[in-house]
Specification:
By secondary structure, this protein is mainly α. The protein has one domain. Helix content is 51%, strand content 5%. A two-stranded antiparallel sheet has the order 1-2. The chain starts with 9 loop residues before the first helix and ends with a helix.
């Protein structure tokens, strides 16, 4: 049985979510944004079939504005390359 054909295990889902969290944290940091409480939602990681959700957490107004600016900048760059 190939890896692509097998069902993802609970441990695999959590590890995948951890990688996604880390990748998101790194990308945000590169854009000048630091979310102080980004992490995995513990309740969603429990049980035999976890959802493994990433909790972006709370942030202050300054961080929310920095995140908004980074997202808008990226959207502008993507629209510029599509022309």
């Amino acid at each position: 049985m190939t890896t692509a054909g097998r069902q993802q295990t609970a441990t695999d889902k959590v590890r995948d979510a951890e990688r996604a969290r880390d990748d998101s944290r790194d990308a945000l940091k590169a854009a000048g944004v630091q979310l102080p409480s980004i992490g995995l939602d513990p309740a969603s990681c429990a049980g035999p079939a976890p959802l493994a959700l990433i909790d972006l957490g709370c942030c202050n107004v300054e961080t929310a504005r920095a995140l908004t600016a980074a997202l808008r900048s990226n959207v502008g760059e993507q629209q510029g390359t599509a022309r």
